[in-house]
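Page 47, continued from p. 46.
Same chain as before, 119 aa.
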Amino acid sequence: MNNLDQKIQAALQRANADPSATEPNLAEEVIGTFRGRQRMISVIAFVCSLVLLAGALWAGNKFLSAPTVGEQLSWGGLALVLFLIVLFVKVWFWLQMQTNRILREVKRLELAVLTAKRD
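Result:
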């Protein structure tokens, strides 16, 4: 191992011992997706997912009360497609939260390396 690797490991051990380096809870991570450069995209995606969920529930209700099989297939297909779109939007939110986690860890590592260089 070279000197830089040793400094990085030492800085990481100090960062892990630091009680202020706690991870945010799930609510803080969700709120974190509405901050930063992509906040408008997150807001639009969140509102669209709520609208699509309402549409999927409405189509599901129509599916249950449809008198013919053809209508049931139409309403059920629409409900399925809307639910799938909502799921895709939710997966996108989880990916945004994962990106925020990775960026937070990279920043911690940068800080740890900088403090190790000063020592």
